[in-house]
Amino acid sequence: MPATTPEFRPPATRRLLSPMKPETQHLPSDPRVVRNTRTSGQGHADSNYVSLEETRALLSTSLAARNARLAADDMVSTDEAAELAQTSRVTINAWISKGRCIGLSQTKRGFRLPRWQFEPRVWQLVPKLAAALDTTEGWALLAFLESPHGALGGVTPRAAIEQGKGERVLDIAGQEGN
Fold first, then answer.
1. What confidence tier does 145 reach under pLDDT thresholds 50, 70, 90?
2. Measured between alpha carbons, how far is 4 from 14 in angstroms, rounded to an integer?
């Protein structure tokens, strides 16, 4: 394979890099709108990359979206989580690093945690989901749990768990983690 041809990656794992093409060096008029600006004449070699326009749009909205999620009413501090779980903040931090607990890193020090994960149906599945998805990264776990999923009829995995469909969610997570 020539050095200039990037390795194949499925679209879901495309790199947030862009070949320097003059026609993609502008920002969209609305940064919330991400659209593919590649032309069919560029060939399939560029299809492994997100355009510069798409990259800028994603990055401009991601920090604001993360900060809004961290500030949501269902989020608690590590101290509040320790109180909910009747343990210490040190234990909560250890659980986060092991995937026992979903902790979202903040731009400053510390974590925020979704309060709902301490509900019994969710709590018992969090470490199993982390193992099935092969990640302990809180944002990745949260994204999986809060994104509507086609295999669940458009319901989020979190809602499916709360409806008693935890085993189905674990099966889906296992398929996505492989």
1. very high
2. 16
Structural domain ending residue among the three candidates 46, 70, 94: 70
Where in the sequence is the domain holding 33, given as residue range(s)? 11-70
Q: Is 155 helix (H, G, I), strand (E, B) or coil?
A: strand
pLDDT tens per residue across span 111-138: 999 999 999 999 999 999 999 999 999 9
Q: How many angstroms separate the first and last alpha carbons of the chain?
A: 26
88 and 161: one domain?
A: yes
Q: What is the pTM of this model?
A: 0.66
Q: In sequence order, what are the beta bridge partners of 77?
A: 112
Q: Are 114 and 124 in contact (CB under 8 A)?
A: no
For residue 143 the two structure tokens come to 């994204």
Give one DSSP letter per residue of 90-146, joined into a string. Answer: HHHHHHHHHTSS--EEPSSSSEEEEGGGGSHHHHTTHHHHHHHHT---HHHHHHHHH
The confidence score (pLDDT) of residue 46 equals 53
